[in-house]
Design goal:
This protein has 9 helices and 2 strands. By secondary structure, the chain is mainly α. Strands 1-2 form a two-stranded antiparallel sheet. Strand 1 and strand 2 form a beta hairpin. Helix 7 crosses helix 8 and helix 7 packs across helix 9.
């Protein structure tokens, strides 16, 4: 009996050790309320508070056809940069959707480039302000999706700070801040069509998560 008991203790110890290693290495599945199932996490790489948000951003970009090879890096960049300016990352995604339909090599007739459609002379100015000059190599840098969203979020954040109003900030992103400022000073009307388009898209992108959250609450209350 003593031998069998020792074998049982040894087997329990092995199971305990295997589970502990799995948790430490991040190979243990966690339930995701965003995807409605299990997903694998890298516990030591992705901070827990960001995990849900990054998965949410990832799911939106995946629906929009963003390449899987760049999707996680973009999701983390958007989450991190948006937080610096207290901007909802989904609003950033709404701007990207309206500006480029998530095509990182999109170019407008006016020369704006990349995911957030930044013109080269604006990008040059923003790179200096955002302390990204070491990554800036002229207009071609705007085709880099990571750098493009860093500059675009920095720009939107600075416009939000300047105009203290998201609708005006979005309008300035589209029109340019000088034109918006001039109209404000001269008390001239400002069309908010672009801002309303982005905000409408923002609500559409958020809607699936609102429905799911409502479903979770109902499920919890019925227990």
């Amino acid at each position: 009996m003593g031998i069998f008991k020792n074998i049982q203790y040894f087997q329990l110890f092995r199971w305990f050790l295997a589970i502990k290693i799995a948790l430490l290495c991040g190979f243990f599945p966690n339930y995701s309320p965003i995807t409605g199932g299990m997903y694998w996490v890298e516990v030591l790489v992705k901070p827990a508070p960001l995990r849900e948000e990054i998965i949410k951003i990832h799911s939106i970009m995946k629906r929009k056809g963003v390449s899987e090879s760049s999707i996680w890096g973009l999701a983390e960049t958007i989450s991190t940069e948006a937080k610096k300016f207290s901007i909802d990352p989904i609003l950033v995604l709404a701007v990207i959707d309206v500006e480029s339909r998530f095509l990182h090599q999109a170019t407008s007739p006016y020369g704006a480039r990349g995911l957030m459609q930044i013109r080269p002379f604006v990008g040059d100015h923003l790179a200096g302000q955002a302390e990204l000059l070491e990554d800036w190599e002229g207009a071609k840098s705007l085709d880099d999706p990571i750098l493009n969203v860093k500059l675009g979020i920095f720009y939107l954040g600075s416009l939000k700070k300047r105009f203290k109003n998201m609708e005006l900030a979005l309008t300035a992103y589209n029109w340019g801040p000088t034109r918006v400022q001039s109209r404000l000073e001269e008390d001239e009307p400002i069309s908010l069509d672009y801002a309303e388009r982005v905000l409408s898209n923002y609500e559409d992108l958020r809607q699936p998560f609102r429905i799911r959250r409502a479903g979770w609450k109902e499920s919890e209350q019925s227990r």
